[in-house]
Amino acid sequence: MVHHHTDLMSLMLQGCDDYWAWNKKDKSHEVKLTGTRQQTAHFHPKWSNGTAGVRGTRCLNYGTHYWEVRVSQRLFGTSMMFGVGTKHARLHVDAFVNLVGEDEQSWGISHKGTAWHNGKGRNFTKPFHENEATTVGILFDWSKGTLSYFKDGEPLGVAFSGLNRVNQELYPIVCSTAAKTEMTLGRRRRMYHNLQDRCRAAIVSKLKEEKQIDSLPLPNRMRTFLKDTLR
């Protein structure tokens, strides 16, 4: 347990803030995105007759990433899930299922404390208290191939390993079976890829909004490079 906490601490101290969001082009029709830069996913706005998911915009491969998902007090139902998946992982099904981890395309844990991959579930942690706001932290470490979880700041340990052997792009993914449930992205951090990336993070951290990049006296290619971190 301890070393996951150490990994997270080093990411907090040495990494940089990340700015990805939920992907408005890559979601179930039963997910409505709201809030600043699509950071809140609202599942089944009217009623629910199935399972709805959404992918994040950040490709996780080759890096170390940490992100938090804040679940509103409406935490209940068959399955609310948090994990990672490829572009082939389904984001909607007209049935109440554990969608993240239903096949070999995704890996996730549910609020019932079960870890799912390839259609198989196993007990991973204690079930979350229902109808209680909860923050789920997810740490993806490509070099170790691990996906670790935290609940309200407490480490739950490694749920999956061997993810660095996956030869497709992996993205954050969440899903819910329950009506009018909400998940909001909280803190997002990642490790620098190289010195150029570190310089970019220093510049972006000083800017209030994306359009300020356009006024910087830089070549277009450098402007594009700066904007890439905000997607």
General description of the model:
This protein is mostly beta strands. The protein has two domains: 2-191, SPRY domain (Jelly Rolls, Sandwich); 194-231. The protein has helices at 2-14, 195-205, 220-228, and strands spanning 16-17, 22-27, 31-34, 40-43, 51-56, 64-71, 80-85, 92-93, 106-110, 114-117, 120-123, 134-141, 146-151, 154-160, 171-176, 181-190. Strands 1, 3, 4, 6, 12, 13, 14 and 16 form an eight-stranded antiparallel sheet that branches. Strands 2, 5, 7, 8, 9, 10, 11 and 15 form an eight-stranded antiparallel sheet that branches. It is globular, with a radius of gyration of 17 Å. The two termini are 32 Å apart. The model has no long low-confidence stretch (mean pLDDT 91).
Key descriptive features of the protein:
Jelly Rolls, mainly beta, 231 residues, eight-stranded antiparallel sheet, 16 strands, 2 domains
